[in-house]
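User: I'm putting together notes for a lab meeting next week and I want to include a structural view of one of the chains we've been expressing. I don't have a solved structure, so I'd like a prediction I can at least talk through. The sequence is below, exactly as it appears in our construct file.
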Amino acid sequence: MLSPARLARRRAGLACLVAAPILLTAATAVDPALGDVDFAEAIAADPSAARLHTLLLHWCWVLFVPGLLALLAPIRRRGRVLATIAWPAAALGLATFAGLTLSDYFGLAVLDVADVAAFERVEEQVAQYGWLAAGWQVPGLLGWAAALLLTPLAAARAGQVGWWYPATAVPGFALYLLFAIEEPPLSLAGPVLLTAANAVLAARLWSRPQAEAGEEGFAAFRRTVGVVCLIGAPLALAAGMATLPGGAFHIAGGFAADPGAAQASAFFLHLAWLLFIPAVVEVTGRLTGRGWRLGQAAGALALIGLLHFNGLMIGDYAGLATEQVLDPVRAEAVTARLGEYASLSLGVALPGMAGALLGLILVPVAAARAGLVRWPVPVLAGVGWRRSSR
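Assistant: Thanks for the context. Below is the predicted structure for the 390-residue chain, given as structure tokens.
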């Protein structure tokens, strides 16, 4: 039987697996750019609906990450080949894709303070950034597709779910992929099918007895990835801070003062917060005894926070593009307008920053309380976050 900690993690993942396609359905329903319309003109005509669509879509892909990881967690040997592809695709690729959706906020801000022509020039400038293509778009799109397509197959191959699940979930994702921007009801067919499949799956698995995954096979792969990411994340964070424009731990002269450094810094900071995700999952998954309750709460806080916070780094590319394309007055107006979007500040930025930073402090505390590490570790972690957040 599963320990209380792992049972709580599985049920939280199943809840996310149901909530995610519901949000996808809602996001598709309110999208003002469906059908045969010009994208820029459509979102400019109904910016409130466009912002709501972006928020729901971002949260949808965020919640899919813990949901898919919960399906993959019990896999041992059967299905491990598919799982070793699907797990990093979900933890890293899908998380990156969720961040990509936030770029729509910056496009909306440009449309609010300028016009369609300026929006198109900014979009063309962003498309020239190699760091964005290689570090965000390619891994994000590939990870998004691989996670949604392979996770149901891996879970069925391992015997964790019946084959009926991939037979419904995979076509549901395929329908969304093909018809996401078509007029309803065609655009809603995929999300509705995914919602039905995931709801039935969660109901069947919620109270089903399940053995511990053990330490062999796929579990060993996850442990290795988590340890590597635990080391790689702070190294990427240091690289991101060191490459900020101006060559110091602060931005000097704006992003346009050194476009190459600005792009590199945004990538490394995104990578840092991204790599902390597998590290947090691995550490909190090993907590037992006195620290497990705090560990699960801190882990959930950190995971959701990191899934938001890493995506906020996409704003550096948009900020660079506006500085390079628009005049200084309008570039500053774009930044000011972004601060006025409550859905961005309260729905993404606040949970991202608070969750990531507070969670990454509390996870080492929980690990020390559980006896996994000694108490100097959370002290050093707290000092490190305090210095890096200055």
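A couple of points you could mention at the meeting. The chain has one domain: 4-388. Residues 130-157 form the longest helix (28 residues).

User: Perfect, that's what I needed.
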